[in-house]
Amino acid sequence: MSHNTFGHLFRVTTWGESHGPALGCVIDGCPPGLPLDAPFIQQFLDKRRPGTSRFVTQRQEADEVKILSGVFEDDRTDGPVTTGTPISLMIGNTDQRSKDYREIRDRYRPGHADYAYDQKYGVRDYRGGGRSSARETAARVGAGAVARRMLGEDIVLRGAVVQIGPHRIDPENWDWAETQNNPFWCPDAKMAAQWEDYLDSVRKSGSSTGAIVEVHASGVPAGWGAPVYGKLDAELAGAMMSINAAKGVEIGAGFAAAAMSGEDNADEMRAGNGAPRFLANNNGGVAGGISTGQDVVVRIAIKPTSSILNEVKSITRDGKEVDVRTIGRHDPCVGIRAVPVAEAMMACVLADAKLRHRGQTGR
Hints:
18 strands; alpha+beta; 363 residues; 5-stranded antiparallel sheet; 7 helices
């Protein structure tokens, strides 16, 4: 299987399967001298960890990360620091229930990667989906933590769920602090209460639902990215679409820009204190593929979880028509746990952009 690496100068290779003994990643290109220890990475993995509420999969994984290489500590350093060599992270799998998947061993789950993987490779790991499982994203979150260290404290990344099923937040109620007060990363307290009832009904019915995740990066300086084939928004779109179940990406106003006039869509400017003062951010902090110094804003559409208890029409590996259901522990809305994953992917893209900008301009 190829294409397990992303990034140009800040490069991340993930490895492992959903029901294997462990998964992890190797990060290459991280500069030396950055403080990095397991507890720093762990705080982000805990945000993605399963089993944290009744609205996510009840698989019980500690997601405890181990740093296998790339850091060093002695009496000359104030704690572990990166050495500039490849950083290897490992996260053990401790709560697999492979027997839950015996029923679909030779049956394809519609909407899942089962059929496509089988056609490409002639073999598939049916136990949780193997590499196609969202379990792989734990490694991305670990890599994203390393990327945050590289970006520094001046760049702040935050994510939120802004829609679950047909129920969308009211932007007027947006409060970043509220995302820490509910299990949905919802910035609208009123909508969070509505989602609770809605997801309870979805979960009890044996079905699933989709979501939209929005991620902001503030403090990104102007000038990152490149024209034509190195556009920052193109890199972000590719990274976000690589997340399991992602089916759409918007930068800034996104598809809504198609209904705007030129005047409405213009991010008008006025003189500021050493930099322009923008009157809008319809371009999501990127113009011509290069960051403008505004917040970088990305939204991702996450489809409903394909593994559901309700029967759906499908076929077996030998072409027989069957009805398929998936027993076991699955997210009724995988978009909830996509928030820390989307934050991590943005962090990795920005870290790569920082290194590429430094390599071209020297600053």
